[in-house]
Write a structure and sequence with these properties.
The chain has a two-stranded antiparallel sheet with strand order 1-2. Strand 1 and strand 2 form a beta hairpin. The protein is mainly alpha-helical. The protein has 5 helices and 2 strands, in the order H-H-H-E-E-H-H. The longest helix has 27 residues. The N and C termini lie far apart (54 Å). Helix 2 crosses helix 3.
Length: 111
């Protein structure tokens, strides 16, 4: 495990009561948000660390303290997965000329 992975792992709290968001992690570590997300993903996929996240007012990452917290975090990820799945389905089936059709359609209207 790299030094930055260890540092990030130490910052992620156990329990959902005080999660830490990606921006806070990035600021503390002095790295950008994209790299922070990549490290979190690596901690999960390479090392098996059960890092989940919650959305809303008290959003951020945490390590579940129990199965109830794990399931809450999994629900958030499943919702994101479903939304991305819909996006992927549209891209797979999309008409490659749709952009031109839309521009032609709206070219005739005053915007």
């Amino acid at each position: 495990m790299t030094d930055i992975e260890i540092r990030l792992l130490r910052l992620i709290p156990v329990g959902s009561d005080r999660p830490i968001n990606t921006n806070e992690l990035a600021t503390i570590l002095g790295i950008d948000v994209r790299r922070t997300r990549e490290i979190i993903s690596r901690l999960i996929t390479r090392y098996g660390v059960p890092i989940v996240a919650k959305r809303g007012i008290n959003s951020g990452h945490y390590i579940p303290r129990n199965d109830m917290e794990r399931l809450e975090g999994i629900r958030e990820l499943q919702a994101q997965h479903q939304a991305e799945g819909k996006r992927l389905d549209v891209l797979i089936m999309a008409d490659l000329n749709r952009r031109d059709e839309l521009l032609e359609e709206y070219n005739h209207e005053d915007i």
